[in-house]
Design a protein that fits this description.
The protein has one helix at about 95-105, and strands at about 10-15, 20-35, 35-55, 65-70, 75-80, 85-90. With about 120 residues, the chain is mainly beta. A hairpin with a 6-residue loop joins strand 5 and strand 6 (about 85-90). Helices cover about 15% and strands about 45% of the residues. The chain is built from 1 helix and 6 strands; from the N terminus they run ββββββα. The strands form 2 sheets. Strands 1-2-3-4 form a 4-stranded antiparallel β-sheet, covered by helices on one side. The structure holds zinc ion. Zinc ion binds next to loops.
């Protein structure tokens, strides 16, 4: 990843030190299958850096990306800050789950039918 974009991107920061950047947060469109129907929603993707970047020090010219985690994965993961060793937990599914609950709440009314 090129450092030229780095300043403008939304950063996923270390809990212990805001200068430590563990990755980049990006809004992406996700798809999911619900009741046989494809639904689309926006979620957050995190681009993880292999080595955390300390913005108080020198930002590497080429930042090595370890992987991409998408919000559509309804699971969490922990990632360690290579600057100070603090672990941070990412809950990518929270946003997607909230969306699904909201949708389910609306759909549950379909079952309520009047008799007669
Ligand atoms: Zn840190």
């Amino acid at each position: 990843m090129d450092r030229s974009n780095f300043e403008n991107l939304k950063k996923w920061k270390c809990d212990a030190n805001e200068s430590h950047v563990l990755g980049i947060l990006k809004r992406v469109e996700a798809k999911a299958q619900v009741d046989g129907e494809t639904i689309r929603y926006h979620t957050t993707q995190v681009i993880l850096f292999r080595e955390a970047v300390d913005v108080d020090r020198e930002i590497p010219n080429d930042i090595e990306v370890a992987g991409y985690i998408e919000g559509s994965l309804l699971m969490h993961m922990t990632w360690k800050c290579t600057c100070c060793g603090t672990t941070k937990t990412w809950h990518p599914g929270e946003e997607a789950l909230a969306w699904l609950y909201e949708r389910h709440g609306k759909n549950s009314r379909i079952g309520e039918q009047r008799n007669g």
